[in-house]
Design a protein that fits this description.
- It is a single chain.
- By secondary structure, the protein is mostly helical.
- 52% of the residues lie in helices and 7% in strands.
- It has 11 helices and 3 strands.
- α3 (48-61) packs across α5 (80-92) and α9 (187-195) runs antiparallel to α10 (201-212).
């Protein structure tokens, strides 16, 4: 009908419930068997509902374009369903390859600049899909004292816990930080730790790709998508 817009995301919120059910199942299985290694995760990540949920979260987080200069708005114009279907086909065919990360710099209070890596939107969607599958397994292993980068936890909650411990008689706090942690972490050791819970070679290969992806300084970029008229 003229003047009436058609939702670009016709599936709605339905996939969220299915994804949450998958996450609960993975968490419960990991909790029941602390030594279990999961071997069929890549196929779960390629599910249409998981990719759809990953897209919704990437879109909600917004963020700039990567080296291909492809924005979230351009993908919406291209068609979200089409984009996700093509991306799913690429993943299931084993033809996915991580693109280099665009390097940008954010000014710090002391005058220095903090390097920031910006993956392409396509890579961010795949990374988010992998996170949806891997996170509940990792969550089953974390202790209650861990608050950093965990769902439904925050620095404010950690401070509240410190206040509770202080009221119980604790009077010492150790504040420590690792300089450039994400830039200095040993990839081999990280993959070994992930491998203690994940035996799926395709998933491990995917994580390795992201760890080893190159960096392109801001100012460069490719336009392959515009030439091919395909996002995936």
């Amino acid at each position: 009908m003229a003047g009436q817009t058609v939702p670009n995301d016709p599936v709605g919120d339905e996939p969220s419930d299915k994804v949450r059910q998958l996450q609960r199942q993975l968490w419960a299985a990991a909790k029941r068997a602390p030594g279990r290694r999961f071997h069929a995760l890549y196929g779960q990540m390629c599910r249409g509902d998981v990719l759809h949920e990953a897209w919704k979260r990437v879109r909600r987080n917004k963020g700039a374009a990567g080296v291909d200069r492809l924005t979230i708005g351009e993908i919406e114009q291209y068609g979200v369903r089409r984009f996700l279907e093509e991306l799913g086909e690429v993943l299931r065919a084993g033809a996915y390859g991580a693109q280099v990360v665009r390097r940008a710099y954010i000014p710090k209070a002391d005058g220095a600049k903090r390097p920031l890596g910006i993956p392409t939107v396509r890579d961010r969607v795949v990374q988010m899909a992998a996170k949806l599958v891997l996170e509940p397994i990792c969550e089953a292993d974390f202790g209650p004292c861990s608050y950093g980068f965990r769902p439904k936890r925050s620095a404010q909650m950690a401070l509240q816990r410190l206040r509770q411990l202080g009221n119980q008689g604790a009077d010492h706090v150790l504040d420590a930080d690792i300089e450039n942690y994400f830039g200095s972490i040993e990839h081999g050791k990280l993959l070994t730790l992930v491998g203690q819970r994940v035996s799926d070679r395709k998933m491990l290969k995917l994580v390795r790709q992201w760890l080893q992806a190159g960096v392109m300084e801001d100012g460069g970029g490719a336009t392959r998508w515009r030439e091919r008229r395909r996002v995936a």
